[in-house]
Amino acid sequence: MSTEPEVKDIVRQRYGAAALRVSQGSGCCSGAAASCDPITSHLYSSAEAAQIPAEALQASLGCGNPTALADLRPGEIVLDLGSGGGIDVLLSARRVGPAGLAYGLDMTDEMLALARENQRKAGVENVRFLKGEIENIPLPGNSVDVVVSNCVINLSADKDRVFAEIFRVLKPGGRLAVSDVVVRGEVPPSIRRSVELWIGCVAGALSETDYNARLARAGFASISLEPFRVYSAADAREFLAAEGIDAAAIAPLVDNKFLSAFIRAVKPAL
Questions:
Q1: Which CATH class is domain 4-266?
Q2: What pTM did the predictor assign?
Q3: Is 173 helix (H, G, I), strand (E, B) or coil?
């Protein structure tokens, strides 16, 4: 397992490079129905894509659409962890309306610059982008109604700290609604690391059981985990071949064991 500083450096470099590619007009995806891979493609509707700059969609490296499951309401305050190019922040801001506010938190300067430019293009005023780490959220306690995140918590080497911070900043009765990658069952460590590299989970995805248990330990209630996409060795065939791994040979070890899921939880009211 990589150390926390190593993980952060890898993530910062990867997402910084992705932001620069989009800013320079060489992003890997374009258009609402674009497909870079089975993980990041076809997550947002054409109607949602029409509400945001193309660059916000191109910079999305998520595994789901948390704004679609968060049940956002006018006037609420939303925080997006690992906000990247700003797609979920901008969509959230439109849903909470001018009386609400959407924060985006990211540690990568290039992504923050891209997100602020996307905000300018979108003409959305009720947005604030913050620089910081999801293990140390720069907001006061009990200040946010909803926390969303799109395939970012799995990138942290200290997930317990992330869950504790989310719990701290949420108001009593506040909601967590995130998309994340989880693993189901046992996978040999060497094979697991190769598949996780393909997915982008450099820190290691949690199991379904572990994810639920950690949220409960942080104090959350009404926890639910709903699988959204289940991945097979065939999905990663090209990547695994480049790693010198026969996808067909390892299929029994990995098929249907890695999945994107919607995770919901509530901070109990006082």
A1: alpha beta
A2: 0.78
A3: strand
